């Protein structure tokens, strides 16, 4: 097999990286106050968009806003305290940066893997592997 054949084969097996990080749109958090609890109504939609475990996202949001939280039977996140949509959005953007978007190509085509007790992001688009902050 000569160089051109190997190059053609390598290019055919390389995943296409189409688009950019702008195709990843974070939904606006729908929050409402219920007494001293903030109810994040579309939490499950956000988790689905991230393609991550709800408990992992919940733990990050708890740490970012400094409170306790629980996921109710309808998939909503209930945060103790009063937090506006902008504060929740900021925490979600922080999560996306730390656990979803690839630091090399900027695409959201990643998955979290557990290695030696730590999370590692594996990018399906470019193949990069990077440790996360946890």
What does this structure look like?
The chain is of the alpha+beta class and 134 residues long. The protein has four helices and seven strands; from the N terminus they run H-E-E-H-H-E-E-H-E-E-E. Helix 3 (54-65) packs across helix 4. The longest helix has 16 residues, at 85-100. The mean pLDDT is 87.
Strand portion:
15-25%
Write the H/E string, N to C: HEEHHEEHEEE
For this entry, what is the oligomeric state of its chains? single chain
Judged by helices, strands and strand pairing, the structural class is alpha+beta
Major beta sheet summary? 4 strands, antiparallel
Helical element count?
4
Q: Helicity range of the residues?
A: 25-40%
Gyration radius over CA: 18 Å
Total strand count, please? 7
Biggest sheet: strand arrangement: 1-2-4-3
Question: Which shape, going by the Cα principal axes?
Answer: elongated
Residue-averaged pLDDT: 87
Straight-line N-to-C gap: 45 Å
Which regions have little confidence, pLDDT < 50, spanning 5+ residues? none
